[in-house]
Amino acid sequence: xxxxxxFVEADNAEAIxxxxxxxxxxxxxxxxxxxxxxxxxxxxxxTHAMTRDERCKSAHWIVVxxxxxxxxxxxxxxxxxxxxxxDILMKYLYKGLATGDRPTCDQCLRxxxxxxxxxxxxxxxxxxxxxxxxx
Amino acid sequence: MAAISVHQFxxxxxxxxxxxxKSMVAFCPNNNExxxxxxxxxxxxxxxxxxxxxxxxxxxxxxxRTNRIVTASQDxxxxxxxxxxxxxxxxxxxxxxNRAALCVQWSPKENKFAVGSGAKTVCVCYYEQxxxxxxxxxxxxxxxxxxxxxxxxxxxxxLATTSTDGKCRVFSTLIKGVDSKxxxxxxxxxxxxxxxxxxLDLSLSWAFGVKWSPSGxxxxxxxxxxxxxxxxxxxxxPLAQNVACRDLPLRDVLFxxxxxVIGVGFDCTPMVFAADDRGIxxxxxxxxxxxxxxxxxxxxxxxxxxxxxxxxxxxHGMNNDSVxxxxxxxxxxxxxxxxxxxxxxxxxxxxxxxTSGLDGRVVIWDLEGQQDLLDYM
Lengths: 135, 377
Hints:
The structure holds two protein chains of two kinds.
Chain A: H1 2-32, H2 36-44, H3 54-69, H4 74-80, H5 86-99, H6 102-119, H7 121-129
Chain B: E1 3-8, E2 15-18, E3 24-28, E4 33-40, E5 43-51, E6 57-62, E7 68-73, E8 78-84, E9 87-93, E10 101-106, E11 112-117, E12 122-128, E13 133-139, E14 147-152, E15 158-163, E16 168-172, E17 196-200, E18 207-212, E19 218-223, E20 227-232, E21 239-244, E22 250-257, E23 260-265, E24 271-275, E25 281-286, H1 304-316, E26 337-343, E27 352-357, E28 361-366, H2 371-374
Antiparallel strand pairs in B: 1-28, 2-3, 3-4, 4-5, 6-7, 7-8, 8-9, 10-11, 11-12, 12-13, 14-15, 15-16, 16-17, 18-19, 19-20, 20-21, 22-23, 23-24, 24-25, 26-27, 27-28
GO cellular component, one term (chain B): Arp2/3 protein complex
Protein name (chain B): Actin-related protein 2/3 complex subunit
Subcellular location (chain B): Cytoplasm, Cytoskeleton
């Protein structure tokens, strides 16, 4: 069964890559217009990240990372972000912290503090417990 | 105040159960003994100590009609205790396990009990008159990991289990000669012993604390990923819902009515969940005050110290040991609650219940006077 799933995924991967590219362009233009919050929302939207294809995952991470690093006003961002995105944002924050890159870690830790305050520990628990839908 | 009585019995309690008339409480103080306390005019006094197990007792249940206590322990055995005169006499139940027994519950008719174990099995035990012996029948090869909780359907046949493989399962426990005697042959419609009726695959991490609603129509269980799951119409076409908790995960749940569930766990404060008119479950509120008071940190739980350090170091470089040590938990319970038991009549409406936890307290809660909650009952 796992093999069959992998096959479908591989078939899908190209389609997902195209969608991610499309997303990237949209985010770039939002960032140029100085709308970092909108850009992050766009980045987190959809479930492209939940694919098992590593190439798609890393392509998507580059997009999210781009949007994350542009965030200046963390409180403002969180207050305009829908609670349904909290869990996925938390996953990306941990991915960022795992990179070991100093500016990325600093930024992720800054957002992590505010997000934990707002979304609670449950959000972290769901990230830790979910070994299937990784980003 | 929703908590009407708080009593510190021991440094830590693994589980507790009430006598049929609710005048006595039996609990395990995190060792191989069961202590039974009785309330004499505002004062709890120890009346019995049940000593027979070799290791920590992980489950106690006290039957209402037959006044029998069943215990399950990490020593892989169970005992059924009968009160003869003023002495509790144990009868060994050989469960045939090679791992710890983790939980135990009497069936509604009290002619069977179920034991969940670390051996990936569930034992269903029943009394054999001829041999004066409790026989254990095993449900094997269904669970991929330890069975953390068992719960009997009101029909005395179906048994729900949760496991650390993340699944919740429902089994038939029909035993010939035990179940057919009383139910007038109506049991023929049930599947044979050990048959898996349904497997619910909602949680991605360990599952704990499963319970049936009073009618047996709804099932609730919790996951270690801070989620609670509600399953309506358990059968061929179940309807599943999940609710994400804001804070730490739950350990056990209790239905106080068809539409209201109390969840307890690592957050130290009971949480109320309720279904609205359309049957949509949601978190209502915490029971009792949730203490968020803290001097050094914003995080009102035992994690605050670690979190304070985590963030402190990120800001001020290293060697930040000055983060205030935090004994800031100040709720009714000061540590994880791992057991919740109903109090009062075993009807469809439970107004009172008790909780016990790793802080060694037994707390009695009353929903009377909680006007906003009574609407859901």
